Amino acid sequence: MAIMNGTRPMLRHVFMVFILLVAYHYIPSSLQDQYSAYTNSDEELRTELDSGLANATFVMLVRNSDLDGTISSVRALEDRFNSKFGYPYVFLNNEPFTDEFKRRVSVLIRSEVEFGLIQQEHWSQPDWIDEEKAEKARKKMVALNVKYGVLLQT
């Protein structure tokens, strides 16, 4: 009888784990189409997910004057990671990239590279921002030693 009493709690735990596993599968599959499609063996989705590569792009907001830092960052990414995977890059600037910038960065990257221009009104602080309040917040970040807080000072 002592063995039987020890078995019941264990059976309860096994039953509870089984219920949780079933719920873990059926709840997400009923709520999310992609999960449902993957678990229902949609071969195209399964092949994409099994490839191991995420649908991703490196996006960098840089200026022409940031060339040396950009080269250093891209070289590190390529040497340590992206040379194996070949994710594309998109470089965005608030003014047209110089030919030198494009040439020196492109030579480091084997994958696709795009250079884009962000309109000035999208790069800068919007006109509707309360400048007095924003300035107080920037000063507070500097006082609190927030990383890059000093870069926000006007």
From TrEMBL:
<dbReference type="GO" id="GO:0000032">
    <property type="term" value="P:cell wall mannoprotein biosynthetic process"/>
</dbReference>
<dbReference type="GO" id="GO:0016020">
    <property type="term" value="C:membrane"/>
</dbReference>
<keyword id="KW-0808">Transferase</keyword>
<dbReference type="InterPro" id="IPR002685">
    <property type="entry name" value="Glyco_trans_15"/>
</dbReference>
<dbReference type="GO" id="GO:0000026">
    <property type="term" value="F:alpha-1,2-mannosyltransferase activity"/>
</dbReference>
<dbReference type="Pfam" id="PF01793">
    <property type="entry name" value="Glyco_transf_15"/>
</dbReference>
<protein>
    <submittedName>
        <fullName>Glycosyltransferase family 15 protein</fullName>
    </submittedName>
</protein>
<dbReference type="InterPro" id="IPR029044">
    <property type="entry name" value="Nucleotide-diphossugar_trans"/>
</dbReference>
<dbReference type="GO" id="GO:0005794">
    <property type="term" value="C:Golgi apparatus"/>
</dbReference>
<comment type="similarity">
    <text>Belongs to the glycosyltransferase 15 family.</text>
</comment>
<dbReference type="GO" id="GO:0006487">
    <property type="term" value="P:protein N-linked glycosylation"/>
</dbReference>
<feature type="signal peptide">
    <location>
        <begin position="1"/>
        <end position="32"/>
    </location>
</feature>
<keyword id="KW-0732">Signal</keyword>
